[in-house]
């Protein structure tokens, strides 16, 4: 652990578009110091550093080599999802804790392998579910705690982005690339975990996405409540925020969040308020929790072990949309565990997987 006064020395992996957002965030965080940047394209990494006025940062293509050369304390992984497993395992095996961009991996099996690697090496692996970090979401969660048993949570997400590139060509684009934020936030707000899901997808005739850009999922949770996600990425007009629009119906009243600053609660009377943003929200909030966990040893809310169920919600919803059947989360997790054990080559990591299956 380090003291509050000592900045934690970070190596970032990935210098693409999201990587540059992380460069700005790390530079603005007094509790952290960027000492290394790793990317397969060294020129792109050097250009990214120059664009942000960052100097004295070691650039290379190997996480282990750059970390050793800089005396780094931890790694921030901002690579594409398919690279998360090898990058995280290399860092963990080098004795470095990791903060990794969501999703943990393209599959639940690979997410389980990473969580097991973190346990085997005794190092923290935290997944950055950055949309957990809003003062208004915290306020909504606190209000819901006072409303008694939850009946239903509904999230509406309607946006019309023209991304271009791979997103407009990928399968299950809304579920895979965006819905995990809402799925994870539903777990956070309710404190409950998913049991099963039924999901349908479709693509409106005007859609500019190659595959289905609309998704509608109903999850049953272990407290008996239902979480309903309904959304579209080709919905021009009356768009929601990027966090969606939320309504919670509970035993002693209802609560709503517009996805921005406004929270409404009605029990015996209607109370509405605008919540001022926290000092550190989105990825800045994620980074702050990671640094605090390194200093205190506390388990962060986004630890890889806890985050697996949010990713399992996505995989189950995709499976339901493909088969037209209700899918149980525990079946997805059981199959993923079996696959993780079968594909893991490190005996120490496999032992963790076999113990936790």
Concise overview:
By secondary structure, this protein is α/β, with parallel strands linked by helices. 41% of the residues lie in helices and 24% in strands.
List the helices and strands and how they pair.
Layout: E1 8-13, H1 17-28, E2 32-38, H2 42-51, E3 58-60, H3 63-70, E4 74-77, H4 81-93, E5 98-101, H5 108-121, E6 125-128, H6 135-145, E7 150-158, H7 173-190, E8 194-202, E9 214-221, E10 226-232, E11 245-250, E12 253-257, E13 262-266, E14 270-274, H8 283-296, H9 304-323, E15 327-328, H10 329-343, H11 347-356
Parallel strand pairs: 1-2, 1-4, 2-3, 4-5, 5-6, 7-10
Antiparallel strand pairs: 7-11, 8-9, 8-15, 9-10, 11-12, 12-13, 13-14
Helix pairs in contact: 4-5, 5-9, 5-10, 5-11, 6-7, 7-9
Family: Belongs to the Gfo/Idh/MocA family.
Protein name: Gfo/Idh/MocA family oxidoreductase
GO molecular function: nucleotide binding; oxidoreductase activity
Description:
The chain has helices at residues 17-28, 42-51, 63-70, 81-93, 108-121, 135-145, 173-190, 283-296, 304-323, 329-343, 347-356, and strands at residues 8-13, 32-38, 58-60, 74-77, 98-101, 125-128, 150-158, 194-202, 214-221, 226-232, 245-250, 253-257, 262-266, 270-274, 327-328. It has 357 residues and is α/β, with parallel strands linked by helices. The strands form 2 sheets. A 9-stranded mixed beta sheet has the order 14-13-12-11-7-10-9-8-15.
